[in-house]
Amino acid sequence: MSKDRTYDYVIVGAGSAGCVLAGRLSEDPSVKVALVESGPRDRKTEIRIPAAFPKLFKTPYDWNYATTKQTALDDRELYWPRGHTLGGSSAINAMMWVRGHRADYDAWGEAAGSPWSYDEFVRYFQRAERWQGAARADGEDTVYGTAGPLHISPPRHPNPTTAAFLDACRAQGLCELDELNQDDHSGFALTPLNQYKGRRWSAADGYLKPAARRPNLDVYTDARVTRIDFDGTRAAGVVASGVSAGVLRATREVILCAGAINSPQLLQQAGIGDPETLAEAGIDTFVASPDVGRHLQDHLMYPLNVRAAKPVTLTGADSPANIARFLLGGRGPLTSNVGEAVAFLATSPELTAPDIELVYAPVPFVNHGLEAPTEHGLTVGVILLQPKSEGRITPGGPDGKPRIDPDYLAHEEDVRTLVAGVRRAEELLAQSALAAHHTEPMGGYPGVVDDEALTRSVRANAETLYHPVGTCRMGSDEGSVTDPRLRVRGTEGLRVVDASVMPRITRGHTHAPTVALAERAADLIREDATK
Ligand SMILES: Cc1cc2nc3c(=O)[nH]c(=O)nc-3n(C[C@H](O)[C@H](O)[C@H](O)COP(=O)(O)OP(=O)(O)OC[C@H]3O[C@@H](n4cnc5c(N)ncnc54)[C@H](O)[C@@H]3O)c2cc1C
């Protein structure tokens, strides 16, 4: 007797997007949904404690990826964490809810049709949001939604030096934003956070937990999808290790939500990809789709670390007293997401949207926080928002992992923009409001040096800001991997819904747009089911 189980929809990956879809599609009790997650349940205490997220790195809650040697970064192989639990990367991320700029979505609209452009798409952010902050000082309506599943809160306990960073931005003449997530976010603000009462609020908290008891939703954890099963060119189900059933069958659709690395990997393993690349990995081509895995874009970050003038930073914040404050009332410095404030700016007056983000952290950034910092320091991270360099994911990395080559800074203009951004950060550090809080440079930042020496330091110290996208890009053109309704071209019954479908990386962070695009995908899937 067959052990197969049958569902209407089988969703692969319970990350930012997968949780949205599982929650939304199972709202209809007549629809049967399976959500299949490779990682364990999200029961680890460090997931709840915002400041503890680096403690999840290189644990069973992390895929623990690394890039190939990056030629323009002194041949370094960069560590790339990705979430491996319910909530996916939203369970291990820095909780920053930053939508991006109007121009980001207007570019998506150009690539994949007007419903993805800002004016039509913005409602999907609002559908997801439940703003917890104060009303606007200017009396205008909030830009946020107020009734969605995801709590968005201002920081509860910003560090005293964070106010100094904001003062420095003000003194520098940057625009103070009452709310960061406006259509033009050029300016500075405290970071809006995916937190509720001082604790992390992941996509699993918002979308999955309220749905978990529905009889029409089955959630499989510790279940890694190894194969998509096809009936001709129609995706008919998936096979997962750790699931005793045979095939998890999908009568309507298989939906890949495995993220920007694993979704293209699953397509490539199924023979959907660039024929030459597949042949090199010994995989027969099933559907020729050369862009699978290509157009990989990420935000590269260069940290300016400086020693703090006073011992007031997050270093040593995990004292017994602070742990008690956190556990008893969700208060104190352990509620910090680390990146407490942001500024978005343009390095050239001709630009109509920012090309650089500055993230302020009241702690030194050293090796992703893998070791707890021992010294008091501050960081201004400089982020290249619109990289011209693009890389790719290909099969055939070590241990069956995909080969990740973001090809950072391959384009010389990216180096120039990042260096220009560092200069803006140095101006801010020199503003008296902030200068009073730090002394000498530390942790790889050489201090103010000439462009050549600074470029050397960028190559030696830049790291990922953890935002890979673009590897199953959507588009109206035939060469795109997914069509504007996110269906995989050349197949039936197969969609990709996650960060990989973004045709262009946003000038914000990538959790919010992934959630919003999954909210829209839920509408598209429901519409298509009635046809
Ligand atoms: C350390 C870190 C910090 C970040 N900080 C921020 C931030 O502050 N703000 C922000 O906006 N963004 C941040 N990001 C990025 C953001 O979290 C991601 O862009 C977003 O979560 C991506 O959502 P996704 O649904 O595409 O993928 P994910 O959320 O990564 O979900 C993919 C899921 O699929 C599962 N999966 C993969 N392969 C399989 C398989 N074969 N079988 C079964 N399951 C599988 C994974 O385990 C995972 O749960 C950060 C990311 C990281 C890693």
UniProtKB/TrEMBL annotation:
> Which top-level group of life is the source organism from?
Bacteria
Query: Does Transcription regulation count among this protein's keywords?
Result: no
Record keywords, A-Z: FAD, Flavoprotein
The Glucose-methanol-choline oxidoreductase N-terminal domain, residue ranges:
7-300
Per its UniProt record, the required cofactor names are: FAD
Q: What is this protein called?
A: GMC family oxidoreductase N-terminal domain-containing protein
| KW Lipid metabolism (keyword) present | no
Q: Where's the Glucose-methanol-choline oxidoreductase C-terminal domain?
A: 387-518
Family, as annotated? Belongs to the GMC oxidoreductase family.
One matching Pfam family is GMC_oxred_C
Entry-linked InterPro entries: FAD/NAD-bd_sf (IPR036188), GMC_OxRdtase (IPR012132), GMC_OxRdtase_N (IPR000172), GMC_OxRtase_C (IPR007867)
